[in-house]
Design brief:
Distance between the termini: 14 Å
Number of helices: 2
Radius of gyration: 14 Å
Number of strands: 0
Structural class: mainly alpha
Strand content: under 5%
Number of domains: 1
Shape: elongated
Mean pLDDT: 95
Oligomer: single chain
């Protein structure tokens, strides 16, 4: 579970950096990267949900 949390933090940092670059500087490529990161975050969060439920049942 700790690995998933670390991955979420890493993806979140990348997302925030790129989203800010798009919003502040108008960087279109950063917007594309931010959208890609948001999809990856979604996948990892679903995996975290599964692992968390399994851990709570033990």
């Amino acid at each position: 579970m700790n690995e998933l949390i670390a991955k979420i933090k890493e993806l979140e940092a990348a997302f925030l950096k790129d989203a800010e670059a798009q919003a502040v500087k108008g960087n279109k490529a950063a917007g594309t990267r931010a959208r890609k990161a948001s999809l990856e975050i979604e996948k990892v969060m679903k995996e975290f949900r599964k692992v968390s439920l399994e851990a709570s049942k033990k």
